[in-house]
Write a structure and sequence with these properties.
Elements (H helix, E strand, L loop, with lengths): L7 H5 L13 H17 L26 E2 L7 E2 L8 E4 H7 L4 H5 L5 E3 L9 E3 L7 E5 L2 E2 L21 E5 L14 E6 L12 E10 L4 E12 L2 E12 L3 E5 L3 H9 L9 E3 L5 E13 L3 E15 L7 E16 L5 E18 L5 E21 L2 E17 L8 E15 L3 E16 L3 E17 L4 E12 L3 H5 L1 E4 L4 E4 L7 E13 L3 E24 L6 E26 L2 E16 L12 E10 L2 E10 L15 E11 L4 E8 L23 E9 L1
Parallel strand pairs: 6-9, 26-29
Antiparallel strand pairs: 1-2, 3-8, 4-5, 6-7, 8-9, 10-11, 10-35, 11-12, 12-15, 13-14, 15-16, 16-17, 17-18, 18-19, 19-20, 20-21, 21-22, 22-23, 23-24, 24-27, 25-26, 27-28, 28-29, 29-30, 30-31, 31-32, 32-33, 33-34, 34-35
């Protein structure tokens, strides 16, 4: 728009200086969304696994197969259609299809899953509005031991590009991981330690891709080699991107208006590219296993290096390094009380440095420690199956430097648990109990100790061969974390001065969930409604004061009762064959509301989303078109700003060039829509990436 000059008035009004055709209104979005919903209704079904969000590629339908066996959790191995709560499993091809930056952005768009989306370099999954320490992110069933839960600008070290499988578990079985898994468990399985001998003596997979939105280059490779009873696995991945292109300004209209009112010039506002959003990530790993008829034993090592810009902080970046050693073994028994025993453990050395500019190291975060689990499954007794185990962990966390958030702190945790299932054929019961002792010792503030009890119970019934109903209830307790207790320092990345409260008590909750599934020859429908009732919910409260030295607003950890209520519905429908093409329609929707019992809204809660998609396949060619509508979010905390609605469109085509080589062509956010996610701390300074084209090759051998 030649000659356009931004003022506080027109920017606050949502106009600003936009390229022609860029302006959208909520009413226009609602009209477009209505047409999308009408399209879904005309296909009479909603998808079991909806398409990915604006940060994620459309997914294949393979991951939603009802007979996928879920390995995360406790108790007997069960397929996903036998679990009470909604469970998702992605294999390596599914992950490749939807890979997008970090773990949170890759999983965003799955039912009930959103992302913290702190720029392309850092994202952590949010499940049903819960994140940080209420969603356990695991690597091969053991905690990641990084700094991602301490702050959203810290990346998760679990690498989706190098993963062999990712599982998202909710419901009673997540009890095995304690009160920190109230929202769910995300288990990134790298496959470096194998438990069964592969059929082939030598196999592997290679992947490479180019992306236009960030001039990105991605590559990953895995080789499996078997010699007798020994199996070796080598895995490597790399991601290298420039700053991401965005539709319009980095700052939101409200943020620009505030800056102009404070004396800033419109010429100072970045647009078209998101400053300081480049990423360079590499990972190398190796595993060696011995596999016998009734036992296995293996070890693995993984080294990860990650460097990415701290979006919103000019020229600041994080340089991250982690070395992780994993050990796992198991033994199966043919008779007796025990059916099997599994032991696993990890030791981790993690460090990242926050650079304030080129060659200017600032705060150094370190996290070193170990975690171990021992689990035994007992033999079946007239339909009663179960497991019991122990989990131990010890980690030392610290932030040292000018912007030190927390002094050296050690956290030691010991937990024991038992989980049982009873299957009577048409109906079943399950439940468990876990106890944890947690000691948190800060070098300056001293030691705090907590005891936490978690219990869960559930029931399911098959009303027919097609209809499944499930209900679960859980009581959870979560000890406060080291940061929640002892933080006392500036955090420029989130524009907050964070203060812990060492008098915090245990956070408690009672969770209810009702789920239903219809599984037909052509139509599959799945839905859940849930409610979390928290007592002494821990959150960051805006004190209204500012730190004298830094000028940052002071946020202090506090506790209030809070309630989360939500629902998810997903479905898919086989439409049959037309023009020689096999067609399938899918769609899904999710919503969560979170309020404090005494009034007001819990901050950074994702907006409701609706997904629809249409897939077609003929021979070795398949394609998909999809859309996602994100509602506006006005149920916000006092210090937050609302986010507008959005509507994005994606398209994907895959070509089987040979039996072992696949070409993937993809376009995301085709209309270059401005998307700001309500759960992202950066929603006012960094929109999601704009229109992106990806070309990828995936080869297996």
């Amino acid at each position: 728009m030649r000659g356009c000059v931004e003022t506080a008035a027109n920017v606050a009004g949502g106009q600003g200086c936009r390229p022609p055709g860029r302006a959208h209104t909520g009413r226009a979005h609602l009209a477009a969304a209505a047409s999308v919903l009408a399209l879904a209704a005309s296909s009479p079904a909603f998808a079991q696994q909806g398409p990915s969000g604006p940060q994620a590629a459309p997914q294949s339908s393979a991951q939603s197969a009802p007979d996928v066996v879920i390995v995360t959790g406790v108790g007997p191995a069960r397929s996903s259609d036998e679990l009470i709560a909604n469970t998702t499993a992605l294999d390596s091809s599914d992950i490749t299809a939807r890979i997008s930056g970090g773990l949170g952005d890759t999983l965003a768009g799955l039912p009930g899953v959103s992302s913290t989306s702190f720029g392309p370099g850092a994202s952590r999954p949010i499940i049903r509005g819960l994140g940080a320490e209420r969603v356990q992110v695991l690597a091969n069933g053991i905690g990641v031991v990084d700094a991602s839960a301490a702050s959203p600008d810290h990346a998760v070290t679990a690498d989706p590009l190098g993963a062999d499988r990712i599982e998202i578990l909710r419901g009673p079985a997540s009890l095995a991981y304690g009160g920190g898994a109230t929202g769910g468990v995300v288990n990134v399985i790298d496959g470096l330690i194998v438990e069964k001998l592969p059929e082939k003596a030598f196999s592997g997979v290679l992947y490479g891709a180019l992306t236009s939105v960030d001039d990105g280059k991605q590559a990953a490779g895995r080789i499996n080699a078997k010699l007798g009873n020994f199996v070796a696995v080598v895995n490597a991945s790399t991601l290298d991107t420039d700053d991401s292109r965005i539709p319009g300004y980095a700052y939101s209209a409200q943020k620009r208006a505030d800056e102009i009112a404070g004396g800033a010039s419109a010429a100072d506002f970045a647009r078209d590219k998101l400053p300081n959003s480049a990423v360079k990530d590499t990972s190398e790993s190796f595993g060696l296993s011995w596999v016998g008829d009734t036992a296995f034993l293996g070890a693995a090592v993984r080294k990860a290096d990650n460097r990415y810009g701290i979006v919103g902080e000019d020229a600041s970046y994080i340089d991250m390094h982690q070395t992780r050693y994993d050990f796992r073994g198991g033994l199966n028994f043919d008779s007796g009380f025990l059916k099997s025993v599994r032991a696993s453990g990890s030791t981790v050395d993690y460090e990242h440095t926050e650079f304030e500019g080129p060659g200017e190291p600032g705060t150094v975060f370190t996290n070193t420690g170990w975690e171990a689990r021992l689990e035994a499954a007992h033999a079946s007794f007239d339909g009663l199956d179960g497991s019991f185990g122990v989990q131990l962990s010890d980690r030392d966390f610290a932030a040292v430097g000018e912007e030190a958030l927390i002094g050296p702190t050690s956290t030691r945790q010991a937990g024991v648990y038992i989980f049982e299932t009873y299957d009577a054929g048409q109906w079943g019961l399950e439940g468990g109990l876990r106890h944890d002792d947690v000691d948190i010792d800060n070098i300056a503030a001293g030691k705090k100790s907590f005891a936490a009890w978690n219990a869960s119970a559930g029931a399911h019934v098959h009303l027919s061969d097609r209809i499944f109903l499930g209900f679960s209830v859980a009581r959870t307790e979560r000890a406060p974390t080291d940061v929640e207790l002892f933080a006392n320092g500036p955090h420029p990345a989130t524009q907050q001065f964070e203060v812990g409260t060492n008098t915090l008590g245990t956070e408690t909750g009672v969770n209810y969930e009702l789920s239903a599934r219809w599984e037909g020859d052509a139509l599959n429908v799945s839905g859940s409604v849930y409610r979390f009732e928290f007592g002494d919910f821990i959150y960051l409260r805006d004190t209204g004061a500012a730190d004298a030295a830094t000028g940052l607003p002071i946020f202090q950890y506090d506790q209030r009762d809070a309630n989360f209520t939500g629902a998810e519905i997903t479905a898919d429908l086989k439409l049959g064959t037309a023009l020689g093409v096999d067609w399938k329609a899918d769609a899904g929707a999710d919503i969560v509301r979170a309020e404090f019992a005494s009034g007001g809204y819990v901050p950074r809660i994702p907006a409701a989303t609706v997904n629809v998609g249409l897939e077609g396949k003929k021979g070795g060619v398949s394609g998909r078109i999809s859309a996602q509508y994100g509602a506006e979010q006005t149920r916000i905390a006092a210090f937050e700003t609302p986010t507008g609605d959005y509507l994005t469109f994606d398209a994907r085509a895959a070509f089987e060039l040979t039996d072992h080589v696949q070409l993937i062509l993809e376009a995301k956010n085709l209309t270059d829509e401005e998307v700001r996610l309500a759960a992202s701390p950066l929603k006012d300074v960094a929109p999601q990436p704009g229109r992106n084209f990806r070309a990828a090759l995936r080869a297996t051998f």
